[in-house]
Amino acid sequence: MAFFPICLDIADRHCVVIGGGRVAERKVASLLDCGAAVSVVSPELTEPLRCLADQGKINWVARPYQAGDLAGAFVVIAATDDPVVQEAVHSEAEAGNTLLNVADVPKWCNFILPAITRQGDLTVAVSTAGKSPALARKLREQFDREFGVEYAVLVELLGELRQVVLARGMSHQQNKEVFQRLVEADLASWLRAGEWQRLRDHVRQLLADEAAVAVVDAMRAKAEALLGGE
Questions:
Q1: What is the pLDDT averaged over residues 168-190?
Q2: Domain count, the chain
Q3: Fewest C-beta in 10 Å: which of 17, 104, 191, 216?
Q4: For residues 165 and 184, what is the distance between their CA atoms, to the nearest angstrom?
Q5: What is the mean pLDDT of residues 198-225?
Q6: Structural domain harbouring 96
C-alpha cells in the first residue's frame, strides 16, 4: 500500500491514546509536542504518564477501552497489544472516519507514523510503509547527525526573509526565483561556522534590501546562544 504523506495541524485538537504503557508514553509525548489535547484511556499508567495526568496536561480515563471512547477524536493511537481491543478500536475508528494508528499493526492503520528528525520547524520524516521500522530508525539517526541546530535557525531565518520578499508585491514566478537563488548557497554551513558577514553579504547582494539584512542581524542576536557565536 502506498501511504499519502501529510503533516497535520493537531494543536488543540482532541486526540485519544488507548493504552498506558511505554509505547503510549512515547505517543503521548509526540502529541503533546504538537499541542494536541490528549486523552488517555487505560486502567493503569506509567509513572511519567501519571505525572502528566496529575499536572492536568492529559485527561486520564482510568478504565479499559469502551465503545464510544473515540467520539469527537481527530486522531486515535491504539498503543495496546490486546488484539481484541485493537480490532474494536479499528471498527469504531472506521465507522467514524477517524484517523487511526495501531502501534506495530499496519493492517489496522489508516495512517502510519514515520521516524522523525526535528530541528525547530524543520521536520524530516522517514517511512518504509511499515515494512522495516528498524531501517526507518537507522535513517532517522543518520539524519539526526546530519541536520544540526543550525537548520532550526536557517528555517526561521528563511521564513522571516520570505515575508520581506513577499511584501514587495512581485509575481509568483519572480518570488520563486528569488527563493531558489537564496538557498543555492550553503547557508547551513555558514551558520554552523558563524559566518554571519558572509550571510549578510549574500542577502544584500541577492535582495538589495536593507530590511532583509536587518532580518539577518536580528536573527544573529537570537541564534548565537544556540550556535555558540562566531
A1: 94
A2: 2
A3: 104
A4: 16
A5: 91
A6: 14-113
